[in-house]
Amino acid sequence: MSNTPTIELNDGARIPQLGFGVYQIPPDDTAAAVKSALEIGYRHIDTAEMYQNEKGVGQGIRDAGIDRAEVFVTSKLNNGFHKPDDARRAFDDTLRALEFDYVDLFLIHWPLPTLYDGDYVSTWKTLEEFKKDGRARSIGVSNFQVAHLQRLADETGTVPAVNQIEVHPYFANDEVRTYGREHGIATEAWSPIAQGQVLDDPVVTRIAETLGKTPAQVVLRWHIQRGDIVFPKSVTLQRIKDNFALFDFELGDKDFAAISGLDKGESGRIGPNPDTFDFIPS
Ligand SMILES: NC(=O)c1ccc[n+]([C@@H]2O[C@H](COP(=O)([O-])OP(=O)(O)OC[C@H]3O[C@@H](n4cnc5c(N)ncnc54)[C@H](OP(=O)(O)O)[C@@H]3O)[C@@H](O)[C@H]2O)c1
């Protein structure tokens, strides 16, 4: 069984701090990747409607023979479905694809402030329905900036349990993280190793060599010590194993500070800016 620490969310649910991300895993390969991750000990899977592999996630969990209740499963609303009726249908489809009667966490994937007349508030209120009827144990958002979070606080009655945002050593995203910390919103760090781009950094490779760890382990450990939730993606068995072995070592203050010093601010982003991102999959 897994020895991954859990973090308590603002609704009392607990989420494993380390999980397995499945973005860009082809639908046909997803069940096998998820099964491998579960066999290694992961108990938290992060998928999304946009990844088109929810079916494989559900299948992988069943193939691993693990009780549904032991795995924390997150999915996310696709960008084309922000209107309440569309969101309701999309959420039904998510549960159908997973073949589960609930998800542990359901997120608005992107705020899309330039679309839908800038209305992500009615979308959020629709997610509140899913929480109320128990089909989403927790609800949250992804890629929300401080202004978007503040608007939800001003206009609705619930605080998102998490905000899943881009965070890695080149883009520490501390303003949004700090807002979350001050308002009881847990931060989930997506692309935690910047899709591999930070792994050749001389600061990271030097620390990895000194500690006898891989560059990915060092960067993922930095996230863990910052208190964020991470779910690195890999389809490579040895990497899936290595990325799970983060709890038998610690970064000292100097190494931790050296990695924090790699932050490039806004220019360190590798993904789209949530203030302008308006992609709707066809
Ligand atoms: N909410 C959002 O908008 C959003 C956006 C992006 C991602 N996410 C979530 O965050 C998860 C993780 O982010 P991500 O997939 O973008 O990137 P990531 O986890 O930072 O990096 C994945 C890449 O790094 C490689 N890799 C993984 N472990 C490695 C290791 N130990 N050594 C060397 N290379 C390694 C993988 O290659 P191989 O697979 O070939 O091994 C893959 O190319 C996603 O899967 C998804 O669940 C959410």
Automatic annotation (TrEMBL):
<feature type="active site" description="Proton donor">
    <location>
        <position position="51"/>
    </location>
</feature>
<feature type="domain" description="NADP-dependent oxidoreductase">
    <location>
        <begin position="24"/>
        <end position="263"/>
    </location>
</feature>
<dbReference type="Pfam" id="PF00248">
    <property type="entry name" value="Aldo_ket_red"/>
</dbReference>
<keyword id="KW-0560">Oxidoreductase</keyword>
<keyword id="KW-0521">NADP</keyword>
<comment type="similarity">
    <text>Belongs to the aldo/keto reductase family.</text>
</comment>
<dbReference type="InterPro" id="IPR036812">
    <property type="entry name" value="NAD(P)_OxRdtase_dom_sf"/>
</dbReference>
<feature type="site" description="Lowers pKa of active site Tyr">
    <location>
        <position position="76"/>
    </location>
</feature>
<dbReference type="GO" id="GO:0016616">
    <property type="term" value="F:oxidoreductase activity, acting on the CH-OH group of donors, NAD or NADP as acceptor"/>
</dbReference>
<dbReference type="InterPro" id="IPR018170">
    <property type="entry name" value="Aldo/ket_reductase_CS"/>
</dbReference>
<dbReference type="InterPro" id="IPR020471">
    <property type="entry name" value="AKR"/>
</dbReference>
<feature type="binding site">
    <location>
        <position position="109"/>
    </location>
    <ligand>
        <name>substrate</name>
    </ligand>
</feature>
<dbReference type="InterPro" id="IPR023210">
    <property type="entry name" value="NADP_OxRdtase_dom"/>
</dbReference>
<protein>
    <submittedName>
        <fullName>2,5-didehydrogluconate reductase</fullName>
    </submittedName>
</protein>
